[in-house]
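User: Continuing from earlier, I have the next pair ready.

Assistant: Great, send them over.

User: Here they are, in order.

Assistant: Folding the first of the pair now:
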Amino acid sequence: MKPIVAGVAGTVLLVGTIFVATIISDKITVDSIVEENDTTVQAQLPTTAAAQSVVYAPPSIDEVPEGPMKEAILNGYELVNNTHVAADEYVGNQLSCTSCHAGAGYDEQASSLVGVMANYPQYIGRSGGVVTIEERINGCMVRSMNGKKFEMNSDELEAMVAYFAYISEGIPIGAKREWAGTSDMKNVPIPNVDNGEELYGQSCIACHAADGSGTGANTGPALWGDNSFNDGAGMARMSKMAGYIQNNMPVGAAGTLTDQEAADLAAFILSQDRPEWPNHDKDWPKGGKPNDIMSKEKREQVKNGTIDWEKVLSTN
């Protein structure tokens, strides 16, 4: 399947679009494909490219041109939109990329992935090195999807890259993408977990269920438990979860929660049990590991009332 990736590059070059590194927001993130406020290093960019902004006008998925790339692009869309079904052997929970990146990354207001190819390769502090778009996708697979990596030459991975290239068409290096803000609360207030539980019962149960198990990957994803993201995902950080909640929730009323309410909800959600990431000790190998990762140890501290929230939030 290598010709597919070559086809992407060739198509992009023909239309005058260059996809190389800058810096991505971890609103992806996730993980998503959030994203995670890792330390990043932005490439040196031409002044004209860095200064310009672009209009949000991605090509329609319903109008993919005929040709050898069409099948790969459409397969990539399906893999992003219904990851837990289309790539079930690789996904360890009941989430899809759309769980965080609404509309398979097309939604301008919810962690849009349009233009994402213009950000890779990039340096990510959590990995301690330069990461390609393929490696970033696989990072989400093992963290946000609590699953396993695609093989580097697999049809699935190449299809996702083809799809991301398609929805990034026309986005130059360093362009200011107004829609690609970050889900990151810079100064998270000391949370009240009990208040977060009350808010959850008032506003979140209808979509995410009382036990956090969710009602569907793309309608109300699991927020904790076996079918949610593991605690190595970017969303397992207080600053990321609080920022995402405030920017995107509740559906239809995004931006209405105060910093305190978003922090309270984040603390309640992240204090619940979830899959554990086995490689915490390998993250941030060059230092700078944030304190606000809600690991099993911190979840236990919340439950027994010994957590020091000021210390947890000290790096945000």
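And the other member of the pair:
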Amino acid sequence: MSHVKLMYSRARGLITARMFVFVFLLIFLLRPAEGANATISCIDDQGNAVDWFYLYKLPRPHEQPPEEGLKYLLLAEQSEGWTEGGGLVGDVTGALGRSLGPLYENGDLGYILYNDQPPEQRRVDDTNRGGHTKGAVLFDSTQGFWLVHSTPHFPPLKTEGKFSYPNSGINNGQNFICVTYPLERFDTIGEQLQINQPHIYDCDVPESLVSSVPSMASLCKHRNGQKNSTVTDASFSSPNRSVSLLSRAGTQFISFAKGASFKNDLYHAWVAPSLQTDLLVQFWRRSAGVLSSDCSASWKVLNVEQLSPGGRVTYKTTEDHSKWAVSAGGGGLRGGAWVCVGDINRNQAEEARGGGTVCRQDVVVWKAYRAAALECESCTGKVEKCESTRLYD
């Protein structure tokens, strides 16, 4: 009898062990791939889904190796300011790589990639350049994110099969804003993009999502049906529109989108008076027809001349390709604590091109950007500390 019990005990142990192995293999095979997420979202350096983040890619110091031009700062929800990036901006385990990673995996998601300097060519045909816009939109049946940025030739096409960061984005500073939105917000985002007249170089909207985001489907259909993929159809054109966009967690952002027919500076003619605040604006200065600081109206717009994001390195704005604006003050009767990150500069040519910016009022984010602006062009044209510029002359 004891022999039978022993055999029975061994058999039961063997079955238990095999069941354990079976369950382990099942869990292993069904687990999400590393970096994959149940839904599309902005992701921070630690792999956490976040409502939003700001990312500042720092410029490459002179005569330093390329890796020095791939360092970045990150500011996400719950942050008290800029933090050092967990690696290099092109790492698949960084915030950008994790967020855009699902694009290069198999899955039923919608996406639109747009850039006036797309990856497959140096620049869009000058005869049909459309908006000065750069960004990426990814969404599934529940939610997604809108990434607005300043980097040429980014991100890679889906057919590349993996995330990467272009060499053309190494030398100069670059800026990114990623916001997670519920699916119902993306039709409004698509309408904003239609006004911008973006150059769409890669896109797909699955049939299952078309009825939820008709504007995105129209953008992609227009792109796929035209030899030149810049959106220029008159039916998409409108001078300008601003809309409030609530993030997935209920954070309020304001999207300002202008088209070619606006024919004026985004910041001085529209954003500053709309937000009722004086603005300090960082933008790409190595272009023709740069607009001077403008103090002709109630709300002043001053050009940033020298900056130091996070206090890590100090440099001239000619080494920074990013486009952002910050209110001169943090509060008071004249408004304040506004931060805007977008994709268009202050120059004569871009007054007649589409583009936009995404703004929010937040003291922590405002402090991070406001502290980065060290010297500005004053109303008199003199370059001095931004704190001492004659904002109200």
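Worth noting for the second one:
The chain is about 20% helix and 25% strand. The CA atoms of residues 194 and 219 lie 7 Å apart.
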